[in-house]
Specification:
The chain is of the alpha/beta class. The protein contains eleven helices and 14 strands. It has a six-stranded mixed sheet, sandwiched between helices. It has a four-stranded antiparallel sheet with strand order 2-1-4-5, covered by helices on one side. It has a four-stranded antiparallel sheet with strand order 12-13-11-14, covered by helices on one side.
Length: 309
């Protein structure tokens, strides 16, 4: 039995179908849910939490039916919403304690848990300050803390890096990864930034206008392409010179930005690239195996606009 299972799950509104016959099975670890705005990510989360009803089909969370066991599911699941919904005049400590009590913890246990999770998310020194004075990154950490305070078996994180600068985004992604590995809590994290999910997810579910486009292990998405990516330094036309030399040597080579994509025939391809770079007096910066990325699925499937970074 998976952590999350849906069978032909459908949600229709008067003018749009948000989810269309969705079959998904989510296990442990970190699962990324990716899709453009309007792909159905938030609708799926609301149904899984029992906050909105499906039009047809079924869904189970931790072996509970979302139609009949909404309260039981919410007791076992932590939820971090996408939008800013925090009370400005309340401290993070008071908020997280309150949310712990709302989840059924006694006051003393809620205070102890709140202290622990605020320390884990990096708000130990700021926990008594009113949230209204927090930066965006601190607010996101507070939202994450309240989702973890009752020690859930599953957390649903809706765009946790929304509005963050690159440094804060990296910190948040590291936290999400820790939740799924060190804490042993199953994670379903949504994002429209493909690179984020490649970095932290064990499994990726790709939605396109409410339909399942792909669901598989992240490593399967990123299998080798059979291409060697080569970067050289030297004169302004260094890449062109090496590319031409590779073609003359019988290899297929094409430019790709500052890199050269070289088709790997056998292990000797690496030696040919190295030797030609030396012969041309060029500095060989790197040679690395090319891999597919999640964004390639969207190109192949014709999905909506999803950002690669």
């Amino acid at each position: 039995m998976g952590v999350i299972e849906t069978v032909a799950l459908t949600k229709k509104y008067p003018r749009v179908t948000a989810l269309d016959q969705l079959d998904v099975n989510v296990g442990g670890g970190v699962t990324g849910l990716v899709g453009a705005n309007g792909a159905g990510k938030s609708t799926l989360i609301k149904i899984l939490l029992g906050l909105t009803d499906a039009t047809s089909g079924s869904a189970r969370v931790l072996d509970h039916d979302v139609t009949t066991d909404g309260a039981a599911i919410r007791a076992l699941v932590g939820y971090m919403p996408e939008h800013d919904c925090l009370p400005a005049d309340v401290s993070a400590s008071d908020l997280v304690v309150h949310m712990g009590q709302m989840s059924g913890l006694p006051y003393a246990a809620a205070r102890e848990r709140a202290s622990d999770v605020l320390r884990h998310v990096g708000l130990a020194e700021e926990r008594y300050r009113p949230i209204g004075g927090y930066s965006t990154g601190m607010k996101q950490r507070a939202k994450l803390a309240q989702a973890l305070v009752h020690d859930p078996r599953l957390v649903l994180l809706d765009e946790p890096t929304n509005g963050l600068d690159p440094s804060s985004r990296d910190d948040m992604l590291a936290l999400v990864r820790r939740i799924g590995t060190e804490f042993g809590i199953a994670v379903l994290v949504t994002s429209h930034l493909l690179g984020e999910l490649e970095r932290i997810s064990d499994h990726v579910v790709v939605l396109d206008t409410g339909r399942l486009l792909r669901s598989q292990a992240t490593t399967d998405f990123m299998h080798a392409t059979g291409l060697l990516l080569v970067e050289v330094q030297g004169p302004s036309d260094a890449d062109q010179r090496l590319g031409q030399a590779l073609v003359e040597a019988g290899l297929r080579a094409t430019p790709s930005g500052r890199l050269i994509e070289v088709e790997v025939k056998d292990e000797g391809t690496y030696d040919v690239v190295r030797d030609l770079a030396v012969d041309l007096g060029l500095g060989l910066v790197r040679m690395q195996e090319g891999h597919h990325r999640i964004e390639d699925v969207f190109r192949e499937g014709g999905a909506g606009s999803v950002q690669p970074v």
